[in-house]
Amino acid sequence: MNTTQPEGSLYTKIENKIATIEFGHPASNSFPSFLLQRLTDELNKLSQNKDVSVIILKSQGEKAFCAGASFDELLQIDDLEKGEKFFSGFANVINAMRKCSQLIIGRIQGKTVGGGVGLAAACDYAFATEAAAIKLSELTIGIGPFVIAPAVERKMGTAALAELTIAGHEWQNAYWAKERGLFAKVYETISEMDKEVDFLAQKLASYNPEALADMKRILWENTSNWDSLLLERAAISGKLVLSEFTKNALSQFKK
Q: Is 242 a member of any domain?
């Protein structure tokens, strides 16, 4: 079921050393700043929780996994400071996922755009359904996927990042994304995927938590500069969103 709360929702359930974070928003599970901050805080809190060995990240409903940043908020940006702050939202979430002590399993049930692709890329292991097509459409509105690019490139490589970005008007299907490393497994149905998500999470929860935490650190080696890099990238997007081109493109898009 999709959330009807206008600001969106975020719930965490902890059971048998598995924490499941579920987010939702009426606009195709997009993220307003408020919800991005809640997700960042939740990940930071779980990272300190010794009773949690693995995290599952999922969204509500059976349609879109995540439509990226809030379009309504994007339209309201009118100065550099607001722009930088807005785009820092996904920077903070990706850094929280990167630094989190636990491995994060992504459960991607449907279409994913922009920042949503960044979330999937920042998961340590991601399951998807055949409906989980992806798109990075930022160039089409005069900005770029600058904040999430390091996460996408790390997981999928420069060639895939270039293809997604330059052909930003095109959807790429879940099997394309799997071939390039974004998804580990793709299933026909959500129920098939959920069985496998639960199976893997239970397996990981039975392993030595110290070994899991050490593995997490090794997987994310050489990314310590992301704390500053992603915020620098947020500033680039924050500047571009004020351009005449982007303002016109956004107003056309809204119509």
A: no
In this structure, is residue 235 part of a structural domain?
Answer: no
Domain count for the chain: 1
Q: Following CA atoms 115, 121, 123, 125 in sequence, which dihedral angle do they give, to the nearest 10 degrees?
A: 140
Do residues 216 and 123 lie in contact, with contact meaning Cβ atoms separated by under 8 Å?
Answer: no
> Which residue, 127, 116, 134, is CA-closest to 192?
127
Report the side by side order of strands in the sheet with 103-108. 9-15, 18-24, 54-59, 103-108, 125-129, 185-187
User: Helix 149-156 vs helix 226-240: angle between axes, to the nearest 10 degrees?
Assistant: 120
Helix spans in the chain (H) = 33-47, 71-76, 80-99, 115-122, 149-156, 158-166, 174-179, 190-205, 209-219, 226-240, 244-254
Paired tokens of 210:
């110290």
The crossing angle, in degrees rounded to 10, of helices 226-240 and 80-99 is: 150
Provide the residue range defining the domain that includes 68: 9-205
pTM: predicted TM-score of the whole model, two decimal places:
0.96
The three-state secondary structure class of 113 is strand
Q: What confidence score (pLDDT) does residue 3 get?
A: 55
Measured distance CA(122)–CA(117) in Å, rounded: 9
pLDDT, tens digit, 9 for 90 and up, residues 185-204: 999 999 999 999 999 999 99
User: CATH number, domain at 20?
Assistant: 3.90.226.10
Cβ atoms of 152 and 198 within 8 Å: the answer is no
